[in-house]
Design goal:
Layout lengths: L2 H29 L2 H11 L3 H7 L11 H14 L3 H18 L4 H7 L13 H17 L3 H17 L1 H4 L3 H13 L3 H15 L3 H14 L2 H8 L4 H6 L5 E9 L4 E9 L3 E9 L9 E2 L9 E6 H11 L1 H20 L4 H14 L13 E9 L2 E3 L2 E4 L2 E4 L3 E3 L6 E8 L8 E5 L3
Parallel strand pairs: 1-11
Antiparallel strand pairs: 1-6, 2-3, 4-8, 5-6, 7-10, 8-9, 11-12
Length: about 425
């Protein structure tokens, strides 16, 4: 073939390669929606209304990122105090996750020679659990214990499906136990509190609950066992709280995924992602001096820990698919008879190997549930969160009205994000 003709084909192949790369780049740029990034930035700048407005419609993001749209919007609305709005979006997220369990063969085939960016984002195992966690909080804030318990049972199914990835989510397990307790299903509550004590390795944060519920169930031997984890001074107090304040505290920023690559000559590229922390060491929240009702209990989940555990559990499947993709690309390139075209195809495949770094970014670094017993009369509660003192409105408990649960949700110590809901307990 004359040199000019060879040059003609090289230029033509190069143009096609550039076009393919451009189209692919545009495609994945659509996946990393600018609206999602705008909403996340506004959220962490404390601009909740702007964050919610940035995601005004599902059309603001790629169809492959619909799950992220529902999760991010749901979390933003929760912290804006719009609990019903949050519920609506998170229920859509839960329904979409169920639909996505039916794998799209077309997407999977396309991703075998391109990138995971071409597939719908299905959420890490921990993210799937946290959808139900936020739904439980939303329903509790609205005083709807029955619907909260429905979500608690959905969360238990996620625990059972992904036990290794999710076992360290103590916050959600404590929330599940409370949902059972609030609906007066004391046997289910006792089971979950006991499971939580085993997982944490320290029964102290739930010892009071286990003793109270254990006595009602007639588990005298187990009550005696858990009594040893309650301070002697409190056992002598023998004062039953007239109500209970339950505070959900979100602190810091969850880790985000970052890309990594391993390159093997001449043109093999393995891509993968890992989580990178965005928050340093966070000081646990604390409760100011309380009245005679007794001390508060606190249970915390390191959100980053369960996200990393989820990604680690998927590691074998990720490596297997990445290896299969490399083999498929090599087979395609090897079967091309034109050397110039083969080089360009290898280049395109190399550049298309982009790690999938999508994740739910409005999650906090830690989630803490604080249970504060309340005395009859006026209760003034002070919380110390991230170096700020948050003074909650006075809670009046009148004897004879029955026990009440009071709920607050606070993010990063900012009182402007707090709200409250009352609901009479089943105790």
């Amino acid at each position: 073939m004359p040199d000019k003709m060879k040059l003609f084909y090289v230029v033509r192949y190069f143009k096609w390669a550039c076009l393919l790369i451009f189209l692919f780049s545009a495609l994945i740029s659509g996946c990393t929606s600018a609206k999602l990034n705008m909403a996340r930035d506004a959220f962490y700048n404390g601009q909740i209304d702007q964050a919610s407005g940035a995601l005004s419609s599902a059309e603001d993001v790629s169809t492959r990122d619909q799950l992220l749209y529902f999760m991010e919007k749901g979390a933003i609305l929760h912290h804006a105090g719009d609990y019903q709005g949050s519920i609506d979006f998170l229920l859509n997220a839960a329904a979409l996750m169920q639909d996505q369990d039916v794998i799209s063969a077309g997407q999977q085939t396309a991703s075998m020679v391109t990138s995971e960016w071409l597939t719908d984002y299905k959420g890490e195992y921990a993210e799937r659990l946290l959808v139900h966690t936020y739904l439980m909080m939303d329903f509790l804030m609205l005083g709807n214990h029955e619907s909260a318990l429905v979500e608690a049972k959905q969360a238990l199914e996620v625990y059972d499906t992904y036990p290794e990835a999710c076992f360290a989510d103590y916050f959600t397990r404590a929330l599940i136990a409370h949902c059972y307790e609030a609906e007066n299903e004391i046997n289910g509550a006792y089971i979950e509190y006991k499971k939580l004590a085993e997982l944490m390795g320290d029964p102290a944060p739930v010892a009071r609950k286990l003793c109270t519920l254990g006595r009602r169930l007639g588990f005298d031997d187990e009550v005696e066992h858990f009594r040893q984890f309650i301070p002697e001074a409190e056992l002598k107090r023998n004062v039953r709280p007239a109500g209970e304040l339950i505070v959900f505290v979100s602190q810091g920023k969850s880790p985000v995924k970052i890309p990594h690559n391993i390159v093997l000559p001449p043109s093999i590229r393995f891509s993968f992602s890992t989580y990178e922390d965005r928050s340093g060491c966070l000081v646990p929240p604390s409760v100011g001096p309380l009245a005679d009702a007794g001390p508060s209990d606190m249970i915390t989940t390191d959100v980053g820990e369960i996200l990393k555990a989820s990604l680690k559990e998927r590691l074998v499947a990720v490596i297997a698919k990445e290896t299969a993709r490399v083999v498929a690309k090599e087979a395609i390139a090897h079967n091309i008879n034109d050397d110039n075209l083969e080089v360009l195809v290898r280049l395109v495949f190399f550049l298309m190997e982009v790690p999938d770094t999508r994740c739910w970014e409005t999650l906090p670094a830690t989630l803490t549930i604080i249970r504060v017993p309340l005395s009859p009369g006026a209760n003034q509660i002070h919380l110390n969160i991230m170096g700020q003192t948050v003074t909650l409105p006075k809670i009046d408990i009148h004897p004879g009205n029955g026990s009440f649960y009071h709920y607050y949700s606070i993010r990063n110590g900012m009182g402007s994000f707090s709200s409250m809901g009352d609901a009479q307990s089943g105790n």
